[in-house]
Design a protein that fits this description.
about 950 residues, alpha+beta, 31 helices
Length: about 950
């Protein structure tokens, strides 16, 4: 039985560094009981293959079976989204199954299977699926891990014929892929390009971590991507041998969840996979080993420019266990214990101590280790102090039991997360259900329905005593082989000895780590004024949508509906967003994503707001749109009224706690050097600014700007913005319309009227840079084999050319497809070329078409030649009807699927209460985008892909010239 408990990955993003530290709700991976047991589903007398060693309740919505050749399958009906069928085919063939001279072969095989088989020529499967409405990369993809390879297909508007064709293609890919020297040689260039593009600071840190933590185990050396040497040595004969060993029916599991009769899907599996037979016996699953107590306990990883960080691990052997109710209750108790420790660590980080962020979690890593991991991001260079302080907090947790109040706090959070899964069960996507099932197979566990998961959790509550939590904590932070890794940007002599000494030094339990118990209620929020009154109420947009205006000028777009059970989406738009700022005078807008939310409401700080919302579905996300600032949350009918009050008091009586300002400032400085260490990070830092002709609103702040940030200048910028108008509230979801209108009146309607300060004309202009004959050269300080290249052309903005704006999406998709075929599939020059259309409806100018890709420095000129040739051909020659259809069909299906949920319509209606053109653009979107002809595409290319207007830039390694 699987529960989602994700560890935050290291990130170079300031925002990610900061937000990842907050304790996150634990959501169970559960399955929806969307249909009663059907003929062929398992009875209580015969437990299906997934549940053979388990006593957890069987999710009877799944139809299980095993073919005579050993292939296992599970099928269930699911209508989310309508018409779609999701297929997941998992092979027990990962990098841990490779011999020492086969590193990267499992991943290479994943690539080869897509090139062709006995059923389809090389590359044709992608085109077949595109004609069926499948978007390559999102609807059809695959992933190789150390323990397996999973093929994913989301087939929109599936029919018996299209699903049969798709399973036929998948069967050919597994049973008889096109393993010949020509295909191997072609795909080698693609895989090497993928390896080159992924080989950056994060990959090197990941490699160093894996080699240290799992020293003496196969996982230490078996990265799925392989090595340059083993990839260059690949031959068709070697790949055929690997295929014969592992691509066998007894190693395959198929999960199908979608809008189709399970009996029909079952028959299609039998028709397409039933004859799969392999000669002889396959290889046994190798021994993945156990953590080696003789391996070094400490290690140093040097990666220039990367923020300093420490990871501690307590590693225990991974063992297959019977996935019983008691086992899962014990796992949940461990999660709760770790959540208590993580919350204490987060509280210490918020207070401005020695570490910016720290957290603890448990992971079963690639069936190789059961580990407890603690990650620490020091606030400065004194990692020793950060390590000592974190160890002291852990030592305190091991010394004495937590209070009952602490247990109740974490229990309420976990209980709410599981209850939400039950509430939203009928809108859980089939894609998630199919993925979750094969993930459970991967870790040798089961899946259960959301209600069963909640019941198991609640039935274990009596055992979650302070003493039981203490026992879990002691085991999690003591048992097993200990490892510690220090990541630093500078090599220093004797550092390994310092780390070894630091982790071995006696530690005193922290005396002030425990959180004080205090009751916070909604009554502690600042009071609001008398409710506002409704002055107008009219239909708007889609049937059922309403526009309501209150006496203080607040406008509400309300869409009360049952499309998403027990879910309410709220978006509060206020002020003028990016347009409120000058294009020439920088302000600390970059700090607001984290600090504005964390600075509190009235006298309540972030800790008090955490307690206020604990055990409820409430939150607060902030973002800056082109024409408005936004607070967003997804809540539920029982909580949405208090969520509205939370937002309204944030606008009416914001808090100004200085601690989040110090934290975001420190985080920005810690992460700053990392932004120059790879081509992608340089583009992330500079490209948006350059594409907007160096408009400071789109610039990453300089070191000097970060240093100058203070609580005073942050407040000076944001206090008037939080008090600005207009206010537009969007409320979409399962609410009673009359109740919702009253709730808005009692919260946002109770705020004083706000002036709508006109935006200066200069702020409404978005510029595109002037044409350049040669690319602007940027530099990065990373790998000498990595570069990135971009080329862009100006388009326009606003509503006057809405139809063209929509049809540019089709043009860019065709452009992208051609570059994929040429640069990746054929040449292997670039693994990830992308083309995107950016059309700002909030501005009358500033739009662009952008082509970008990582590329080798010696292939930069070739990249530009291919891009220019493709752009010229699109303008000169009309695309074929088939090529057009392969772009239109996936877009049509994407729109249909998106339109089944409220998030899509809410996004389209942003700003509609102030500008009715958004409503019209929403109504005509599908027609504008999909009724496009080859001639239209050619005209758009001729109009916008003009060589004399293009702009380009290249990111090269220091000291390396483009070729």
């Amino acid at each position: 039985m699987t529960f989602s408990f994700r560890r935050s990955a290291a990130s170079l993003s300031v925002l990610a560094l900061l937000l990842a530290g907050a304790p996150a709700p634990l959501a169970a991976r559960t399955e929806t009981p969307s249909a009663p047991a059907t003929a062929g589903s398992t009875t209580t007398e015969t437990r299906p293959w997934l549940y053979e060693n388990s006593d957890v309740p069987i999710d009877t919505a799944w139809r299980f079976g095993t073919l005579s050749n050993g292939l296992r399958y599970a099928i269930r009906r699911n209508g989310v989204p309508p018409g779609q069928v999701s297929v997941r085919l998992r092979m027990d063939a990962g990098s841990l199954m490779e011999h020492a001279d086969e590193l990267g072969y499992a991943h290479f095989m994943e690539h080869l299977t897509f090139r062709g088989s006995r059923h389809v020529p090389d590359g044709e499967s992608k085109r077949i699926w595109q004609r069926l409405g499948v978007t390559f990369g999102s609807d059809s993809n695959a992933q190789t891990t150390p323990t397996g390879t999973t093929y994913a297909l989301d087939l929109p508007q599936a029919t018996q014929a299209s699903l049969s064709e798709s399973l036929k293609i998948l069967a050919g890919m597994m049973i008889d892929p096109n393993i010949v020297d020509s295909a191997v040689n072609a795909e080698r260039a693609v895989v090497l390009a993928e390896r080159r593009e992924s080989d950056g600071p994060q990959m090197r840190i990941s490699d160093a971590s894996r080699k240290h933590f799992f020293a003496g185990q196969p996982l230490a050396e078996h990265s799925p991507i392989g090595t340059v040497a083993t990839l260059n040595a690949v031959t068709a004969a070697k790949m055929e041998a690997f295929h014969q060993r592992w691509y066998r029916p007894e190693n395959a599991v198929i999960a199908i969840a979608g809008d189709i009769d399970p009996a029909l899907a079952e028959q299609l599996i039998k028709d397409n996979f039933g004859t799969w037979a392999m000669a002889g016996k396959g290889a046994p699953i190798p021994d993945f080993g156990a953590p080696d107590p003789k391996a070094p306990a400490t290690a140093i990883a040097v990666e220039p420019g990367i923020p300093m960080g420490v990871t501690m691990a307590w590693l225990r052997p991974w063992k297959p266990r019977a996935d019983t109710i008691l086992y899962n209750q014990d796992k949940l108790t461990d999660m709760l214990a770790l959540q208590i420790v993580s919350r204490r660590l987060e509280a210490a980080a918020r207070s401005g101590g020695s570490f910016l962020q720290a957290g603890a979690d448990q992971q079963d890593v690639s069936r190789s280790a059961d580990g407890t991991f603690v990650t620490i991001l020091p606030s400065g260079e004194n990692w020793q102090k950060a390590l000592q302080d974190v160890r002291a907090i852990i030592e305190d947790a091991k010394a004495t039991p937590p209070s009952q109040q602490e247990i109740d706090r974490e229990y309420a959070q976990m209980d709410t997360a599981l209850a939400i899964q039950v509430e939203n069960a009928d809108t859980e996507a089939g894609a998630k259900q199919a993925s979750d099932l094969v993930s459970a197979v991967d870790i040798r566990e089961t899946t259960v329905s959301p209600q069963a998961a909640l019941d198991i959790f609640r039935s274990g509550k009596p055992a979650m005593t302070p003493e039981k939590i203490l026992d879990s904590t002691r085991r999690l932070f003591s048992a097993g082989v200990f490892r510690a890794l220090l990541v630093t940007g500078k090599a220093q002599p004797g550092l390994d000895a310092e780390l070894a000494s630091a982790v071995a030094a006696p530690v005193q339990a922290a005396a002030n780590a425990r959180l004080a118990d205090k009751l916070v209620t909604m009554d502690d929020l600042p009071p609001l004024g008398p409710p506002g009154t409704v002055v107008s109420r009219t239909p708007i947009g889609l049937k059922g949508m309403e526009s309501i205006t209150y006496s203080n000028g607040v406008k509400l777009t309300l869409f009360a509906n049952d499309a998403e059970t027990e879910k309410v989406r709220i978006n509060v738009r206020f002020g003028h967003g990016q347009q409120a700022f000058s294009p020439t005078k920088p302000v600390p807008s970059w700090a607001a994503d984290y600090a504005l939310v964390a600075s509190g409401i009235g006298k309540l700080g972030q800790r008090e707001l955490d307690d206020l919302t604990n055990g409820r579905r409430m939150g607060m996300q902030f973002s800056i749109d082109d024409d408005a600032f936004e607070f967003q949350a997804v809540t539920r009918p029982a909580d949405y009224k208090d969520q509205l009050r939370l937002f309204a008091t944030k606008l009416g009586a914001p808090g100004w706690d200085p601690a989040p300002i110090a934290r975001v400032k420190t985080g920005a400085m810690v992460a700053y050097d990392a932004m120059s260490r790879s081509p992608d990070s340089v583009l992330g830092r500079d490209l948006n600014w350059l594409l907007h002709d160096k408009d400071v609103r789109f610039r990453t702040p300089s070191r000097e700007e970060i240093e100058k940030l203070s609580p005073q200048n942050f407040r000076a910028t944001w206090e008037p913005i939080l008090a600005s108008g207009p206010i537009e509230v969007q409320l979409f979801g399962q609410v009673n319309a009359e109740d919702a209108i009253k709730a808005i009146g009692a919260t946002f309607g109770a705020l004083p009227a706000r002036p709508d300060k006109p935006v200066p004309a200069a702020n409404r202009v978005m510029r595109f840079p002037a044409h350049v004959e040669k690319p602007i050269i940027l530099r990065h300080e990373g790998d000498k084999e990595q570069a990135a290249a971009v080329m862009a052309w100006p388009t326009s903005g606003g509503f006057a050319l809405t139809k063209e704006a929509r049809q540019l999406e089709i043009l860019t998709q065709i452009f992208n497809d051609r570059l994929f075929d040429k640069l990746r599939s054929t040449e292997g020059s670039a693994y990830s070329p992308t083309v995107q259309n950016n059309w700002p409806f909030s501005y009358e100018s500033g739009g662009y078409i952008l082509v970008s890709s990582q590329v080798r420095p010696d292939r930069v000129n070739y990249f530009y030649d291919v891009v220019k040739e493709t752009a010229t051909d699109l303008a000169k020659t009309a695309v074929t009807q088939d090529e057009l259809q392969r772009a239109v069909a996936p877009m049509q299906q994407l729109l249909m699927r998106a339109g089944t949920g409220n998030a899509f319509w809410m996004n389209q209606m942003e700003g509609a209460t102030h500008d009715p053109r958004y409503v019209e653009a929403m109504r005509t979107m599908a027609q504008d985008m999909l009724t496009v002809t080859p001639g239209d595409i050619q005209k758009l290319a001729a109009k916008y892909l003009v060589p004399a207007k293009s702009w380009s830039a290249v990111v090269l390694p220091e000291g390396v010239a483009a070729q």
